[in-house]
Amino acid sequence: MPGPGSRSRYAPDRGLTTRMVTTMFLIGLVYVVFVGVLLVALQNAWPVILVVAGGLFIAQFWFSDRIAAYSMGAREVTPEQAPELHGAVDRICALADMPKPRVAIADSDVPNAFATGRNERTALVCATTGLLRRLEPEELEGVLAHELSHVAHRDVAVMTIASFLGVLAGTMTRVWLYTGIGRSSRDSNTAIAMLLVPLVSAVVYVISFLLTRLLSRYRELSADRAAALLTGRPSALASALTKVTGQMARIPTQDLRKAEPFNAFWFAPAFSSKESLSRLLSSHPTLEQRLDQLARISTQLGRA
């Protein structure tokens, strides 16, 4: 995995690189253990397990960006259809010395943005109509610089793969439970497997969830920092953060619930209520943490 900043002017973040490598190693290790348990439990059905596990993983790796973009309603637009958005992306890419990604708009009043893609060649950056309507040009550029840093640092691809492994564990368990693969024998091992596999699957999902949440919080702070240093305008990003977070309370609950499952990808999390459990296990640091960091960067830039 190339180090962050190796192909762009975004400030490198060794802490992010270390966390990405560690997260992938630990989740991969847990996943290998889970597949091992399945192979032991299913006995003669091991070829099916390996094919299903390998096929789903490859499909997720190659199509995850398209699945995410489609699920969040992203519609690719041309420079003629969205000149202001394309212009902002052009300026950030020129500043960062990185290839321009595909540009999309999602028809949603929830003010937000996201980026997806396995690498810079397949990257897509998307802004919602609600975001475009509410932000000033400098604020929009700050948000886009934040999102493009995820592409430059490769953490968007790592998050997608890491999140999928926990989901895959659950999917494979459901396939086993509902199809009865490998349960033809009626010995005591079958009864043990019936209890062991769902339990291990749940453990795998919980570990994957917690690891990706820890990585996600750090990568959001890293993206804020990289965007602020690249643009030299941390105050614009802070203004965008404050405005977007403040507007969330005015969005209909139904719209927020549609956006909430994709919080790990959004610029700012969408919560359907202030007491939501998602806030306790949030994919993002708090607004206060993000604003404090941007204030420190602003002070550092002022001294420089």
Structural write-up:
With 304 residues, the protein is mostly helical. The protein has helices at 14-42, 46-71, 83-96, 129-134, 137-152, 155-179, 188-231, 234-248, 253-259, 277-280, 287-303; strands at 74-76, 102-106, 113-116, 124-128. Helix 1 crosses helix 2 (46-71) and helix 5 (137-152) packs across helix 8 (234-248).
Q: Measure the end-to-end span.
A: 32 Å
The general outline is elongated
Mean pLDDT: 82
Number of strands: 4
Main location: membrane
Organism: Streptomyces formicae
Pfam families: Peptidase_M48 (PF01435)
GO molecular function, one term: metallopeptidase activity
List the helices and strands and how they pair.
Layout: H1 14-42, H2 46-71, E1 74-76, H3 83-96, E2 102-106, E3 113-116, E4 124-128, H4 129-134, H5 137-152, H6 155-179, H7 188-231, H8 234-248, H9 253-259, H10 277-280, H11 287-303
Parallel strand pairs: 2-4
Antiparallel strand pairs: 1-2, 3-4
Summary tags:
mainly alpha, 304 residues, disordered N terminus, single chain
Provide a quick synopsis of the model.
By secondary structure, this protein is mainly alpha-helical. The protein is built from 11 helices and 4 strands, in the order H-H-E-H-E-E-E-H-H-H-H-H-H-H-H. The chain has a 4-stranded mixed sheet with strand order 1-2-4-3, with helices on both faces.
